[in-house]
Amino acid sequence: MQDLLQHLINGLSLGSIYALIALGYTMVYGVLQLINFAHSEVYMMGAFAAYYSASALNLEARPGVLSLMILLFVAIFFCSCLGVLIEFLAYRPLRKAPKINVLITAIGVSLFLQYSAQVFFGADPKVFPQVLENTTLFTFFDVPIKSLDLSVFVVTLVSMILLYLFIFFTKYGKALRAVSCQIQVAPLMGISVNRMISLTFVLGSSLAGVGSVLVGLKYPKIEPLMGLLFGMKAFVAAVLGGIGNIPGAVIGGLLMGLSEEMVVAYLSSTYRDALAFGLLIFILIFKPTGILGKNSAEKV
Amino acid sequence: MPKKFKLFFNSNYFPLVVLVFIGALGWGASFALDSFVQLLLVYLVINMILASSLNLINGITGQFSLGHAGFMAIGAYSSAFLSLWLNRHFGLGENAPSLIFIVLALAAGASAGLAGYLVGLPSLRLKGDYLAVVTLGFSEIIRVVIINTNEIGGPRGFGGFLAPQSFLFSFTHALFWLVFCYFLIQRLLKSNLGRSFLSVREDEIAAESLGVDTTKTKVRAFVISSFFAGVAGSLFAHFVAYLTPQTFSFAKTVDIIIMVVLGGMGSLEGCLIAAVIVTLLPEALRPLQDLTGVDLRMLIYSLMLILVMILRPQGIYGILQSFKKRPGAK
Amino acid sequence: MNAPLKSILEFKNVTMSFGGLKAVSDLSFAVGEKELVALIGPNGAGKTTVFNVMTGIYRPQSGNINFRNKSVLGLKAHQISGLGLGRTFQNIRLFKNLTVMQNVLIGAQPHFKYGFWEPLVLSSRFLETEANAKKYALELLGHFDLKQKQDELASSLPYGEQRKLEMVRSLIGMPRLICLDEPAAGMNHKETEDLMNLILKIKKDFDQAVFLIEHDMKLVMGISERIVVLDHGCCIEEGSPEKVRGSKAVIEAYLGADGGSL
Q1: Which of B123, B224, B227 has its CA nearest to residue A278?
Q2: Do B302 and A109 touch (CB under 8 A)?
Q3: Which H or E run includes C28?
Q4: Helix H or strand E segment including C181
Q5: Which residue of B100, B111, C143, C214 is surrounded by the most CB atoms within 10 Å?
Q6: How close does chain B come to C258, measured CA to CA in Å?
Q7: By the 8 A CB rule, do B257 and B58 touch?
Q8: Domain edges within chain A
């Protein structure tokens, strides 16, 4: 029982990070119908931005909430700039091109970032600075609740609430939903589609930035290829929840984290990475629209 | 007979010229050149098979697979394992008859084709980009499975299986499969099945309304494509005589994707030319790479993907076409 | 109601709704063998949905659709096509990057019965089948004045010819019933007139049933043998052009309760 509870906590903690990344995939897919392969590299770059600013500011010497906030801010800022830049340089010129061409470009951008990172940062893993002390805050049914896990929860929860408020209670959020609902009609309502697409990338990439810092804290090893597999799993989480659906991405991410943790705990860690794809094929066969997704037939 | 000849080549002798040229190079190389050039030539032919077969899915049928390295791995490992088994039971040893490698290539193709069927059936029912993710995931799973299977060497690599002794045989064998693969696809395009592939790329709903079973058509393209990826894997395995899981990573798939994209998606001839470029580029870059100590190859490839898509989505094929159609030229 | 004696297509109490919206509700009608029937109705009456449920693109929630005395519910679109139901699309769906000839040959699915290897070995059955299919395709293209354009890309044809090509593509599969979805959309007066003659010619030369969705009243009244009028997903009138022309329900549906004249 105590074991199970511990695994649940680990799974939820991992799952909430998946959810953060999955949100980026799902939002871009909702607007552009594009699997943004470069999203996982935005996340990887965020981790490096945080890493270098932490060592520049020597934050490891002063662990605490303030240092965490600074890192989060740096990562968010850097990732949103990168996300917008990618959209502007690589995707915008292809707005009218076939979908497959945009997909290839996305893969190109993803590879380009991966290998540039290897050139600039080196291929060896780096240890992410621990800007937060991992102490046991209290115990819950004999399970120690660590400060790291708790801060992962809190930060994720706060970002999701902010995202929710933004999308459902602001003018920009409404415009964003309009674009994602009917990209052809939105401009007739005076919405600048390009600006909304950039905004989507800002939001998605910011969440990836948050996710990258949290991953750095929880699994303190960062490397240029860290995004590849993690991103794929987050994408599967987005499909699981129903691609294009924001609450779906959160549910999918949590489920993904939990099931991965359970597989590692009770089956074998070698199947850890196979799980995501097994899951994906399973969803595609039995419920291709995901948990919350709607069935959308092509209009004839 | 000449009429049939013309029909078969569809009055386009460029690929024939390319293939004869490569053949001449290879047969010349078998006694004149050093082993490095021989190696490159076999790699070139294998890459051409891989590119032509991926082109069938990504270019002609308009789907998007990112798992070609995975199917190649299945072919390579199953062929290597089978040859080991045959050797153990029949004691073929060093002087294994050449015929055995053709059988092995067929078996490798069949097992990759079967894997293609199993992966394709669920994912091809749906339209769009899911196939990309499923196939990418699939090829990663294959790699994980290989790494975790000790019978085929696990992460250390797999060797000690049968390998043909003569370069001439390896080369001719590979060339045979390339000719087969290329002309099968070329001829299919002039048949009902080939036109169905194209109709799926162009408009699935219209194709269905005309009686084309789009799911079946996609699965067929996928199986044919995986078959040849498996054959290429078998050729590769027995030529290098040693396999490691890293060979079949995502980077290998990217290599092949580059050939298809650079050649111009859907263009058979473009693929062949692009395969030459992609095979030789790393060698041309080697001095620069040694100088800078940077893996330039992948940087260039990824930039190429982006730039081709933005500036010249028709690739080399499109450029050739625009020369042909220049005003004044016939 | 004057339902045809021997019907090729029958709708029985078909209902199709999207979310809360009933696009087609409890609709019943029939199209007879070799009959030319038109389906008309104001915008949003559910006409295209009728086409989409019978060609297998959507599946209705209730009711039954029989084509040649066989239920098509649950069949895939290509299976229904294989039963002999051809169609065109409101917003032309040609294979744009393929040639006119390739477009037509893709429509000729039922004609090709050779094996996988035959194209590679150039078997005589393959060569004959292809040659015959091409000959027939040329004949049909000639019928529609498209013969000279066989090697052009479909996307390069002018609008009217694209419409015609779509019909040829569907006709070459020898359907028993051909469904035309707003064939006159975007055409001017002269083109519409030519189209009228063309449709009559199709019906006569190919001796088959035609089911037509159309907005253009002149076209519909001029050529239809029977008209089914749809409004809000329900059949509000059915019968000869004369009967429909005089129907009060139809006038109200089109022009509002105040009336007017068609």
Answers
A1: B123
A2: yes
A3: strand C21-32
A4: strand C177-181
A5: C214
A6: 41
A7: yes
A8: 18-133+146-225
- Domains of chain C, earliest start first: 1-84+175-262 (3.40.50.300), 95-173 (no CATH)
Please enumerate residues of C whose Cβ is less than 8 A from a Cβ of B. Answer: 55-57, 76-78, 81-82, 86-87, 89, 93-98, 102, 105-110, 112, 114, 116, 118-120, 122, 126-127, 130, 169-170, 173
Strands C209-213 and C36-40: parallel
Report chain A residues whose CB lies below 8 A from the CB of C58: 297
Q: Work out the minimum CA distance from C109 to partner chain B, whole angstroms.
A: 6
Neighbours of B156 (CB within 10 A): 10
Block residue for tokens 């693969």:
B181
Q: Which helix H or strand E contains C210, and what residues bound it?
A: strand C209-213
Instruction: Show the tokens assigned to B305.
Output: 């993907």
Strands C209-213 and C177-181: parallel
Q: How far, in Å, CA of B82 to CA of B84, rounded?
A: 5
Domain segments of chain B: what residues?
13-249
User: B199 CB near a chain C CB, below 8 Å?
Assistant: yes
Do the Cβ atoms of B144 and A273 come within 8 Å?
yes
Q: From chain B, which residues contact A within 8 Å (Cβ)? A: 58, 62, 64, 66, 119, 122-123, 125-130, 132-134, 136-138, 140-141, 144-145, 148, 205, 250, 254, 257, 261, 265, 294-295, 298-299, 301-306, 309-310, 313
Give the residue ranges of DSSP H helices in chain C. Answer: 47-54, 77-82, 100-107, 118-121, 124-143, 159-171, 189-206, 217-223, 241-246, 248-255
For residues B265 and B59, is the Cβ–Cβ distance under 8 A?
Answer: yes
**What whole-number distance in Å separates Cα of residue B111 and Cα of residue B103?**
12
Q: Quick check: B94 pLDDT over 70?
A: no
pTM: 0.89
A119 vs B: CB within 8 A: yes
Span A3-48, pLDDT tens digits: 888 888 888 889 999 999 999 998 888 888 888 889 999 999 999 9
User: From the CA atom positions of chain C, what is the Rg in Å?
Assistant: 19
Q: What SS3 class is residue C106?
A: helix
Alpha-carbon dihedral B322, B181, C96, B4, rounded to 10 degrees? 80
How many residue pairs bridge chain B and chain C with CB atoms within 8 Å of each other?
Answer: 94
Q: Which of A94, A109, A111 sits opposite B254 (nearest CB)?
A: A111
Chains that touch B (3 or more CB pairs under 8 A): A, C
The contacts of residue B248 (CB under 8 Å, 6+ apart) are: B69, B70, B72, B73, B76, B139, B142, B143, B146
Compute the mean pLDDT over every residue in chain A, rounded to the nearest whole number: 85
Outline where DSSP puts E strands in chain B. Answer: 158-159, 242-243
Question: How many degrees, rounded to 5, is the angle at CA A273 between CA A268 and CA A276?
Answer: 110
